[in-house]
Amino acid sequence: MISRRTLLLGAGALAAASRLDLARAHEMSHAQERTLAASLAQGWLATGQVEGGFAPLALDRAFEADPLALSPTRLHAIEPAAHGPLAVAVGRRPGKVALVLDRAAGTEVARFAPGGDRVFSGHGRFTPDGTGFLTVEIDPASDQGTLALRSIAGRFDIVAEWPTRGPGPHDMLHMGDSLIIANGGVEPGTPAAVGCEETGANLALLGPDGSARAVFAPGGDLASLSLRHLARDGAGAVIAAQEISLVPSSKPLLFAIDETRGLAAYEAPDEAWMGLRGYIGSVALDASGRIAAAASPRGGRVAFWERTGRYLGFVPFPDGCGLAPTAEAGRFLATSGYGEVILIAVEAREPRILARHTGGPRFDNHVSRIA
After folding, report:
1. Is residue 240 part of a domain?
2. Checking DSSP bridges between strand 254-258 and strand 262-265, what pairing results, if any?
3. Which domain holds residue 131?
4. 205-240 confidence digits (pLDDT tens)
5. What are the residue ranges in the chain where pLDDT is below 70?
6. Strand ranges inside 251-347, DSSP E
7. What is the Cα–Cα distance from 182 to 240, expressed in whole angstroms?
8. What single DSSP character describes residue 216?
9. What CA–CA distances, in Å, run from 325 to 131, 132, 199, 286, 332?
10. How many CA atoms lie within 13 A of 207 on its CB side?
């Protein structure tokens, strides 16, 4: 007999689930299943601090957050698969664990560790064909980065590795047949950053075989920037940076990525850059691809640009960092470390807050929309 759970998962998802040993998943009531099935099909995924530890979270369209599993250590970003029910929440600081989730069932089905003595950077991506998962990992002794390819069918074991072509990798994404890696270099706010004037950061474009197609490093007075977070759509990608000293400055912190020319800075008045206080914690593009948004928890704001680079303004949002588009053009969802969720609209080139939900968990830095 075909059960309701079977219909939720689908045949392909059931095959993946069986490989990942769903026996570890906790039992849920039918009411819980219905709630999670709705929110996990149309909502967002985040991570945060909850009673008893840390958790991957499902956010529904009413912005209510439901924990999906429990981790003893911090989880940073969560990546949903484009096809099938899986999602992976990757740890950071200490970065020793990643949790694999079945979104349809709302359960944890596996967890895995970084390779060797390395630590996770907090980010990972599914491969375009859906058979693998990529993580960027850091050797704490040398700060050099490794890109690890993991087999989903092989319980997320590492099947290949390549150098990230730079120190301190943090985020990555696919653009065409290239993989873009944000090698952050010396991390701002750490002991190594004290008195340091250059991070050694770069943007590396790798081919399918791991070869370096191009490496772009910010020069001049931008050499103090740590390249951190990425967002893309069919038209291209953007990258956000942090100032190594975390001291407010008028240096640009948001750039468009050109595969042949490197980084092109977005425009904003000096006071707008100063207001970000040297720190962008996440970046997103709206559903239309015409609006870019950047969240600064240190600056207590979410700032907006037209994709052409023109600055549009900001909305205040204390300790706000998680940022993701909605299905509607010009709208974004943002989360904060104070347990708030807001819905933002950019209309007639003016950003404003449409809705606010309070009383949630302490959200970590990132939130992802389930497309």
Report:
1. no
2. antiparallel
3. 1-167
4. 999 999 999 999 999 999 999 999 999 998 899 999
5. 1-42
6. 254-258, 262-265, 282-285, 291-296, 301-306, 311-316, 320-325, 331-336, 341-347
7. 9
8. E
9. 26, 25, 30, 5, 4
10. 5
